[in-house]
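Quick one - inputs below.
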Amino acid sequence: MLTLEERQEITAEMQHYPQKQAACIEALKVVQRHRGWVSDAGLRDIAEFLEMTPDELDGIATFYNLVFRKPVGRHVVLLCSSVSCWIMGYDRLRQHFIGRLGIDLGETSPDGQFTLLPIPCLGTCDHAPALIIDDALYRDLDPQRCDTILEMYREAGR
Amino acid sequence: MEQPVSQPSPSGRAVERPLTKNIRPGEEPLSLREYEQAGGYQAVRTALGSLSPSEVVDVVKQANLRGRGGAGFPTGVKWSLVPMGDTAPRPKYLIANADEMEPGTFKDRLLLEGDPHQLLEGMILSAYAIQADVAYIFLRWEYTLAATRLRRAIAEAYDHHYLGRHIRGSDYSLELYLHTSAGRYICGEETALLNALEGKRATPRAKPPFPQVSGLWGKPTVVQNVETLCNVPHIVHRGAEWYKSLSYTDDGGTKIYGVSGKVKRPGAWELPMGTPLREILEEHAGGLRDGLTLRGVLPGGASTDFLVAEHLDIPMDYAAVQKAGSRLGTGTLIVLDDQTCPVGMVHNLERFFAQESCGWCTPCREGLPWTAQLLQALEDGQGQPGDLERLALHTQFLGPGLTFCALAPGAMEPLQSALRYFRDDFEQHIRDKKCPWR
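Output:
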């Protein structure tokens, strides 16, 4: 069952379109904001509310990079892997995160704090390399700055 | 980006920067009141008061405004294909394509974050020109700051009657909504965007029918890039002749050019359309970093052909770049220096395109991962004789007209030009069984 807040947020979005299905992408993001990721149960809840089949909705959910159909950590690190960031040092940053967090791309750290994912071009190429954590943008990165940022999120979690 | 409103360009001409004149880096964008004080929304008041929709279409046509999303299609012509009059299907839609995701491109972000009211004004005018009833901004999710600023601007515009029923007391009404996406490059393709907005998988649609005739939910729809729309208020306010006078060439207006890569000053600058490539690279971006030399640039984002040193003096407009064998695209340059592996760069690009393929048509879905695997093999020192021919075959099979949309042909542009200009690097990877840069 969708919670009251989830239903309210999705209903508000539905006002912008002549057809219910158009709100399904925002609905997936609403549920993800509330629950961290979109489980099969979450998918079914949304499908029921929007009068779609779960399979149809799953086909949509799995099409988009930022809808998570698996559990994620407390914070999602989206590291830009596109060409300008690659020229400016993505490989080195990737290796650094893999070492620091003890995980590979697509995995969540053992303490459940961070999920590490590559993401296509963030549109801030003059300040490459760049990443997003949750919904905050960080750019002009080097390994040291990345450590500072990770520490900031660890501290905030305490 | 620090730019005065108007200053002499290196050629001595005074340069106007209508698109970025209100942008104050590091500060909040202009509020609606401040935007009005700076001359904003005057064009809307003029148009709704004394211009017919077709007069707005005409001035945009005369101004030679071409789409800034990458394709460069003449905007006024695009609008003139929309059915008008009482028998036109309704509702009609105007959509701002703010899904900027072409690698190397960061110009729409500047406009969205820097002057949201300029986009709204451009949308209102463009919607009026085609008599649209509803407008959407299709914004990529990752542009969270832009979303916040746009929401605020939209609320202000409604409060001040620039949106909603009977705009400024006129007969024209327009509802405008912000839609944020969920991350997929193909959503920037206009027909795929329509499917995304309808709440579906964002696979492209066949054209014809064109969106102007049958678009969002089958209704007449115009999709325009953010930068394109931001030009419209200035064209309506100051006229087509003024707009054409800003440019160095036949294409009207200014262009936001950008540079990324190992240059001294990566950034974005609003310059006359047709500014020479050399000026953008050397004067504004400061040239390559010390100790590095230029090997090539992708002039307009990831899906454009490389240009090399012999092309440095070409004007960066649609026709000249096409004549040089590439495309102006988004006008944001990605610089390849002489200590970065060309094979690695092309591999990164093809991995991106392979991942972002929507999977609908066979050449793209099957062919792009093949090219990425071949390039991976070259990088790993596992390249075989014949691999370059296999890659070249893909640039044919995935070329224009052979795929359902332009994603795969675009993906082949950096590859085909890299095989042309950097063939020795590719052959060396095969011959030496390793990447010399690793």
